[in-house]
Amino acid sequence: MSTRRSFLKMAALASGSALVLPKLAWPFAQSPTRIRKFIVPLQGLGPTGIPVATPDTTTFPGEDYYQIHVGEFTQMMHPDPRGIRASRT
Amino acid sequence: MNQPGPRFIQIGNEAGFIPFPVALNNPPPQFSVQNDANGNPTASTLKYTLLLAPAERADVIIDFSHLPVGSKLILFDDAPAPFPQGDPLNDYFTGDPDMTVLGGAPSTPTGFGPNTRTLMQFQVVPRVGPADPPSMNLLEALAVSANGQIGQLVNGLLPRLEQLELRKAVRVRDLTRNETFDDYGRLIQLLGTNQVQDTSNGQLEFGRAYDSEPTEVVHPGATEVWRIFILTGDTHPMHFHLANVQVLSRQPFNVPAYDGVPQFTDKPRLPDPNELGWKETVRMNPGECTTIIARFDLPKVPYSVPTSPRTGGHEYVWRYHILEHEEHDMMRPLIVK
Question: Of B29, B118, B152, B172, which is the most buried if we count CB atoms within 10 A?
Answer without folding.
Answer: B118
